[in-house]
Structures
1.
Amino acid sequence: MQTPWIIGNWKMNGRIDRNIALINAFKTFRLPEKVHIGIASSYPYIHQLYTELQETSIWVGAEDCSQFYDDGAYTGEVSANMLADCGAKFVIIGHSERRTYFSENNDLLKIKLQNALSAGLLPIFCVGETLQERESGQEEKVIASQLAILRDFADASMIVAYEPVWAIGTGKVAEPEQIQAMHQFMNEEILSITGKRDKIPLLYGGSVNADNASIILKTSCVDGALVGGASLKADVFMRIITAATE
Ligand code: PEP
């Protein structure tokens, strides 16, 4: 079995003092060696987290990166190179909140994936269908069209996260059977798109918490979890990490 991944996504949360309190709480736990752990934070706190977590095995990451790669006149933008310079090791690309609020589409996400890889960051590429798409039986078609951009990244190291939009921040978790069926479909789809034999780790995300983590992480074809709200509570996040060791 591959080493599982537990990645926290803090979204637009955090303050310097609150981050310190959360990090100090993490540091009181004994982190398991056999779990890859990461926290994605808003841009201003990446270097703080990098500095504070340097002596732990927790990776720091970003929640997005710019479509622009080289330094230049792009006011307000943060490049993948800057993220790497600040200590980020990974970056979430294509989160559904970015797709929804910023109309991010395949053309843009392809550029962002390329930028992340060029800067040496590990991309966590998110895909997911809306409730309406699932209820109309379109979920596989939607996921296949989102995954299609991987055609250009056949040899790239990356992670893919399946995050049904209807399960993000709603408390409504996909059933293990739904997760397993979709992850199996995604494994087959990625193989057929890229012709790649090396397995891409597939994470599930959507209302993962301390109570449901164990069953989700034991579901076949699930290599870890992308955790939003629950990653903002040290004890809950730690229980999710512990569930990954079972
Ligand atoms: C997420 O933001 O990626 C996520 C899965 O959020 P939550 O766990 O809060 O549903």
2.
Amino acid sequence: MGCSNLRHEAIKHIATTTYQLNRVDFKTVHLKELFGVNVFSEEVQRARLPKPIFKALQKTIKRGQPLDPTIADAVANAMKDWAMEKGATHFTHQFQPMTGLTAEKHDSFLSPTGTGSAIADFSGKELIKGEPDASSFPSGGIRATFEARGYTAWDPSSPAYIVENPNGATLVIPTAFLSWTGEALDKKTPLLRSIEALSSQALRILHLFGNHDATKVFSTMGPEQEYFLIDKQFFYARPDLLNCGRTLFGAKPPKGQELEDQYFGSIPERVLACMAEGEYEMTKLGVPARTRHNEVAPSQYELAPLFEDSNLATDHQMLTMEILRNTADKYGLACLMHEKPFSGINGSGKHNNWSMATDAGENLLTPGDTPHDNAQFLVFCCTVIRAVNKYAELLRVTVASAANDHRLGANEAPPAIVSIFLGDQLTDVIEQIENGGPKSSKDAGIFETGVSILPKLPKDAGDRNRTSPFAFTGNKFEFRMVGSSQSIAGPNTVLNLIVAESLDYVASKLEAAVKAGIDLNKAIQELLPQIIKENKRIIFNGDNYTEEWHKEAEKRGLANLKNTVDTLPIITRKDTIDLCTKYKVYTERELHSRFHIFSEGYVKTINIEGQLMVYMGGRMIFPASLRYQAEVAAAVNATKAAGVDNAPQLELLKTLTAAIADFQKALANLEKALSHHTEADAYEHAKYMRDMVLPIMAETRNLGDKLETLVADDHWPLPTYREMLFIK
Ligand code: ADP
Ligand code: MG
């Protein structure tokens, strides 16, 4: 007696739907002409602004010089005319509050004149500053609701753009979001501060090497986005995916990723069509999408853009996630950005490729061809090694979340222990430096001592290590711990900051030496071995998944912070406060506020998941199990009445009844654990969720999944892993 349920309907619907796939015609719209058409780009600015105003604006954008407020009106006016020609009716200050998402409130360009007509208006004041009612965004105690004012401040270094909608368009202005006391309420403000800190310290090193042409150094970022695409029908039939982004139940499917037949495989037609339209939208917004491919898990994919300066890359990354989600919808797909949508199957990360470059375009982590570049590269490279070793724990905090906890430390993603992979050749060079530089070579006879004659470094690191959390990949570092749903602002803010501190340290030493009359090369030759000696424990080129490494790491004194709750106290530790305030990246109050926000976020996430488990268990799994139990019980009686052996039916009934009883008990436990109110602060509550709620959730899941393997398939209400991952 199969009864109709959402799951069956979903499968039927998918099997019988033809999707409209041809939505973009690249024969008539050429990518090249499409790039940035909806961006208020340098080209548009040049064409539309009076020359002196264009020049002043460019100085702000390129050199970070303060904006001359008198030019704001002219810029705003040009922006408005351009936007309205493109169909915009509204403008919005977009910001990145501590929710980890973007926020926007739209204002119309229209101003009534009071005489029955209206004019289109957008002033410099409106461009520069907005005042959204900010009371409903997380502030971690920085702002009480009675002082709800928050300001959005235009970030001229990230260009305004137009977002199209079937009915009209909106001019979007990237902004920073601050409290009226000037404290950051967002993720962009600290990132911008960290870029400045990095720039001023890196320039000191460049000056030592005689480079006085560079006026700015910025970090470059290329984030590789992993995500899943599954049919929307399944998504709607799974309350857990809809509300939590991950499955809270789901038995292991007979086929998972073990055949390794998915990675780099041919992309399914519907998915490829969806990717292409997403990239089309990204292209219009000047987001440089570059590569796309199938990832390791079934229905998992990846998109990587070309790298950009980290502020722009961060804004573009937020846009990318939004575009992926919206486009998927048009193709009857749901884009899952969660770090671990399916347990037992690979999760998703966001490899954060990071380097430093001058405004002249020189990548400071390129080994280079000449000995001089080589020495400069080694100095920059060693500062990064020192930074990551010294502040490994702080770096770990930036990727901590309830969602990423399912990924880090499991046997797939990088482990929770931060270490650096340098590759054989670079490691060899580093070892040579540590031992005082290479003194001899078989072929070339005697080398002079000195850093500047170290062997030429390979442009390409050659070998790869997929298990390392922080890997040197030829001309950049790849920070692989970042979660797929996370904003990259936090990790990059801290990377910029800790490297700035390291550059400061190195620059101070070298400047002092040079001032004392010591040759720069000699000073470097003395300093680098010491830095390497002090920090080499962070370097590990082996397999990061092994038990031996975990033991070895412990011996080396490297932290293994296994979950979010373990990491959070680092945010308000004295060394963090000293570091952040010294380089003016976070104030002490901002750090305390973030500690509070992250603690609360953790509690809320687990609480929602727990509540949803209770709901799904009680309203979907339990009823289905009871219906099946009644069927089995009827079969027990029917076989008995028929006078045949009913031992198998009875056996099944007993197994089922026991499983149902266990599940019911677990659900009751979970409900009780969730209703327990901790009066203590958010962090204590987070600890409680980790220690008391998560284990019960794990137990409940196991028991629910057991029922999935017992209950008749036609009764089971939830789309299964097998279906969600393989029906395309
Ligand atoms: P892989 O998956 O092999 O690591 P991908 O091509 O998927 O390589 O991604 C590499 C990413 O690194 C791209 O986004 C690329 O633009 C970025 N990248 C390359 N050079 C730099 C650099 N100097 N700074 C930051 N990111 C970079
Ligand atoms: Mg990749």
